Amino acid sequence: MTGWRIGYAAGPAEIIKAMKKVQSQSTSNPVSISQVAAQAALEGPQECISEMLVAFKERHDYVVDRLNKIPGVNCLPTDGTFYLLPGVQEAIKRIDGVSNDLDLAEHLIEKAGVAWCRDQLSVSPAIFVSPSPPAWRTSSVHWIGLRKPLAN
Prior knowledge:
two-stranded antiparallel sheet
């Protein structure tokens, strides 16, 4: 939820000091309820973490596998990230009327009812979109709806 996120960093002192300079000028303090929730997460029971890690890894692997079965989509596995960045350049080339990532995002919402965030990465030769794996494992309708418009 926007405004509820809390993060922290650990690392060499000189890097953390430089990070603090940037952070102090770009963000403000989290709301009190987020601070209490973060404290509870850090100090409370930790038994659920290993179970959650297994579940997130299963979801990640499932989504990567399903994406790689879609014609024109290439998705490399990640190492601990929440979002995936599958390459969709070949899919874009295959679909009439679709010439870039924005066109593809519009095509998917219109034809499949599936919303993808567009990530136009200027440093990358490929074009990427960002599905969010956590909810996708439980809904096969996403995969049924997504595969057909990308297979054109």
